[in-house]
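User: Second chain of the day. Same drill as before.
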Amino acid sequence: MPGSAAAHALTVCSIPISPARVAFPDAPRGRWADYAVAVRVLVTDDSVEVLLSRWQKVLGLMKDIRIPRADVSDAEVVEEPVREAMSAGIKVGLRLPWLYFAARTIRLDQAFIVRRKRPALSFRVSNHGPLQRVLVSTPDAQELARRLQGA
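Assistant: Same format as last time:
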């Protein structure tokens, strides 16, 4: 199979290319290439869901976030989400300053799943316990903010 077209589509110089490399060509290469692809934000007519990978749940001391669409407001795009996460006070979870945060504030009122050089979707939450705000990096931040603002 080394000479087949399928092998060439996924291999360059015998180095496998992950599907994330195709979807996000500007993502970092090497050991951490896929780490930001793990989070998914789903916006439906009924809810907004932030789905985390297993490692984000364990290291970030968090679980998936599901919020009814009626309880979401003030959606906007944040261009430098890591700076905003760093200035939010004491956090619990995975914190790599100036690189990556999968954490919540100590009061549990804000959740951050953000990475450097990736815009983030920010939105306010009501009627969801102590959680008041979510900030999550996603390549689709502009489109998701537009959809949430249009509701």
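The chain has five helices and eleven strands.

User: Great, on to the next one.
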